[in-house]
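In response to the reviewer comment on reproducibility (Comment 2.3), we provide here a single inverse folding case reported in full, input and output, so that an independent group could reproduce the run without further information from us. The structure tokens appear first.
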């Protein structure tokens, strides 16, 4: 009998400890049932995943705080409200208690954090599918702030950002990085080489501007000069190559028909002959012609 009582005591204590949590859940969900159903359908509500609060009996207060006054009086605000009136550091704190390391390790010094943006500025935790985590919808979230990038993607030549084949996170880490502009790699070129490995080299005859920075010639978000060139041929090459050699004359709009010299202007492209613009491995490719 004594052994039975000893074994039963911890179970009774566990039940007493669990009861208030269940009551708190019921009180929250009695009003916020839509949000509760959405959380259950999201990754945060997967009770079988040990990384989630739901797996450990987590409740609404895991993110919103105890909110005791709010539970008694709906006119009282919860302990933590996720809106613009709450400092971004306070809004991000509940998220950072679980989401640490990996892609979030540089968040403290990231551009978004410095501009008073919190995790909820981009993420929607109460939705079964967070739009910023969906490749086809991610760009729309980023474009809400980066409107100049939205305009660039509407130009003639662009990466498939709007179609979702290439989300913004392919190149940028919104949580911060050691690279410029929040790039996923340490430099522009290393980021580009993740997909364009054939441009990496090493080359017997490298083209210095290409080896230095891909953005010297390309604008990755979109331009009106294919392929993603910051200026069309031959003007792009002539920004650096202005010598007495052939084909180095600086053409202008006055050369277009019906003015004389139109034959020189039309179809003129340095890459017609110097096609190995990123570098050449041919023994006779010093001029990047082969």
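Designed residues, in position order:
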């Amino acid at each position: 009998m004594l052994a039975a009582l000893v074994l039963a005591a911890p179970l009774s204590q566990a039940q007493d400890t669990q009861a208030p949590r269940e009551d708190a859940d019921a009180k929250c969900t009695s009003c916020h049932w839509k949000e509760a159903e959405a959380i259950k359908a999201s990754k945060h509500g997967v009770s079988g995943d040990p990384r989630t609060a739901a797996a450990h009996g987590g409740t609404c207060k895991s993110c919103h705080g105890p909110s005791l006054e709010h539970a008694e009086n709906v006119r009282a605000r919860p302990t933590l409200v996720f809106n613009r009136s709450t400092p971004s550091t306070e809004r991000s704190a509940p998220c950072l208690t679980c989401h640490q390391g990996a892609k979030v390790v540089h968040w403290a010094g990231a551009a978004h954090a410095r501009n008073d943006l919190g995790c909820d500025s981009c993420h929607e935790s109460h939705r079964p599918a967070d739009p910023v985590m969906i490749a086809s919808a991610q760009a729309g979230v980023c474009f809400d702030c980066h409107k100049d990038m939205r305009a660039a993607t509407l130009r003639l030549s662009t990466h498939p950002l709007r179609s979702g084949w290439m989300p913004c996170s392919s190149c940028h880490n919104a949580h911060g990085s050691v690279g410029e502009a929040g790039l996923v790699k340490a430099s522009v070129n290393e980021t580009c080489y993740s997909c364009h490995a054939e441009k990496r080299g090493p080359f017997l005859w490298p083209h210095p501007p290409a080896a230095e920075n891909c953005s010297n010639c390309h604008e990755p978000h979109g331009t009106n000069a294919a392929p993603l060139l910051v200026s069309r041929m031959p003007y792009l090459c002539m920004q650096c190559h202005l010598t007495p050699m052939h084909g180095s004359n600086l053409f202008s709009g006055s050369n277009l028909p019906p003015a004389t010299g139109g034959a020189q202007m039309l179809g003129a492209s340095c890459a017609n002959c110097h096609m190995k613009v990123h570098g050449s491995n041919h023994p006779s490719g010093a001029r990047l012609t082969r």
